[in-house]
Amino acid sequence: MTTQRRNFIKSMALLGGATIIDFNLKAQSIMRKTSANSKLQLRWAPYDLQMKHVFTISNSSRKTTPVVLTSLTYDGVTGYGEASLPPYLGESQASVMEFLKKIDLSGFSNPFHIEEILQYVDKIAENNTAAKAAVDIALHDLLGKIIKQPWHKMWGLNTNKIPDTTYTIGIDTDDMIRTKVKEVEGQFNILKVKLGTADDKRIIRAVRSATQLPIAIDANQGWKDKHEALDLIHWLKEQGVVMIEQPMGKYNLEDNAWITERSPLPVFGDESVQRLRDVQKVKGVFTGINIKLMKCTGLHEAWKMRNLAESLGLKVMLGCMTETSCAISAASQLVAGMDFADLDGALLIQNDAFDGARLDKGKIVPTDEPGIGIKQKIKIDYK
Description:
The chain is 35% helix and 21% strand. It is globular and about 65 Å long. The chain folds into 2 domains: 3-52 and 66-150, Enolase-like, domain 1; 153-376, Alpha-Beta Barrel (TIM Barrel). It contains 14 helices and 15 strands. The chain is α/β, with parallel strands linked by helices.
């Protein structure tokens, strides 16, 4: 991390991007011109993502992913958000919409009070992190549109320093693995391969029969014996693997730490690191952390997690669920300067509802449009 980046982090309170002086000055100027009768209006709609291929990890398979899309309007300007709901999060479209019904934003006359608004949302109920992220993302999109700036610029990030995104290859037959790899040939500079079963070596050999690209591994807590896991990691390094994600169970910090200490490859925590409070706990357990907006309630907390992790000497990766370009574009605002990126979620689906961040030479690059940089391309009936 550069001295400039360290000084920037020091200058930012843990409240995140909303503390930038320029942001506050613009917010104050805008609010002086806004009608006193303007109110925040939150609406939502369920939407089902159709996968291009059956998506299989160490403990589940799916062909669709349910999401809930949100819109947040203030003084004629609308921001958009998303809650993506893979099975392991424990949320559903019904639970998200029930949570959103409990939100009453009538007490907030100033949308720029990010910390206060999101603290209120967070305290409504425990968990529900994807539902909270749907509000957070819409709020960030709204505020960026009001200020007419993308968040990557407000955060002072250099989009010339965006890491390559991985493209995910789920657990499958040899022929289907080769098909998936060939479908994206020439588009990516690194692949992410799901492991965590008795077929791990077969899967890697199938990938290697189709490409020599570097590989990131996600075991999704699938390895059960630390000694066997470490032996496999040494073999994986010989196959051109460059990093390992969540080798053992999320609560088994002792064995994860044992592996990290001995691993020839960096080891990242994913399921073990959900929110800001978890970051300090995994220092010394993992080489780095995988931040996901759906786990941590959105951009506001993700920004805090990034800054804290970097201050602790942890590497940082930005990941995703299966998502539309709404949530992916939100994440793309934050990714510049990180160590790894896994932002292929919108590339795995057939029915993206938004245009936004684009794939450019193996990187997911945000647009310079304001907010999170998206445009809706399918009519959504928000209610």
